[in-house]
Amino acid sequence: MAEGEGLREKELAEEGWVKQTTIGEPRLGEIVELYKSLGYEVRLEPVRLDELDEECRRCYESEIDEVKTVYVRKKK
Amino acid sequence: MKKEYWRWPEYRRTVPDKDWTRAEVVTTGVDVGAVSSKAAIMVDGELYAYSIMRTGASSPDSANKAVNWALEGTEMKLDDIQYVVGTGYGRVNVPFANKAVTEITCHARGANYIWGPTVRTILDMGGQDCKAIRCDEKGKVTAFLMNDKCAAGTGRGIEVIADLLAVPIEEVGPMSLRVEKEPESVSSTCVVFAKSEAMGLLRKRWPKETVLAAYCSAMASRIAELLRRVGVQKDFVITGGISKNIGIVKRLEDIIGIKALPMKEEYDPIIAGAIGAGLFAKDLYEKERKDI
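The joint structure predicted for all components is written out below.
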């Protein structure tokens, strides 16, 4: 997965959201549950294919609906 | 028949000199991972027996097989186990589990059991994912990061490279260190791309050692980035199958500037998650009994 900051990532960063990972089930449910238990708000965003490296894009294209990017921020 | 170089040893073990028949609480943790399934039988909160085997097509079958294999030769039956916790990729598919607990939580607890309360950072390098976990003195998770959905930089990637180069998987790490000069890392740890890149290097007559060094180095850099983001604090330990790959571990330690605590002979670092699950099973069993 590309580490470069995309536009959406920058927008969300301004609101305090920090990108964690991009993942699908069954891992997704697990880490959402765990981040919440650690006192974080969790936000799930669709994968932005246009912000991925060519090599990663091919894999993600086939599972675009199941995979989400996880952002977290500490609860105020 | 084609030799499977990726195949790692499956085994079971009973801890000697332990008498389970006098135990007050017998619990089991079952960690069904994407690549391996592990069962840890815990007697009064101490490891009694365990098994490590390849996960098959069905998670429930793999869970069953792992537990039955761990029990083999112990005279303990499934009915003697009072509480079972499932964890790992297939944790919700452990048919006889009383509860499922997330694997990050279980790995932190298991590492605390294996190495003690000074552990603050755990790197779990599994078959299809990699997790950097921070924990407190009780093994409770305080922060974590998981790699993206991708087999790059995971055990599966090493299996593919081992097969491609016809090098037994246990030899990948040591062989990668037999280079006089560290080569440039492969440009990608993506399993698909690294495979074609490695083939290209072989065609250029690079020795296998050098190709492995280039791949292990790329994996170490990728994992180091995950650790950098979560922040590494001592004591630092590594669990999961890749913890046995000295070629990746040494390069990773060089990058982050921190040495991992050495493995303990009596505990295979692959079973940390199953041990953690077994310990949670004991807590949950005792809580339920108290509530009655």
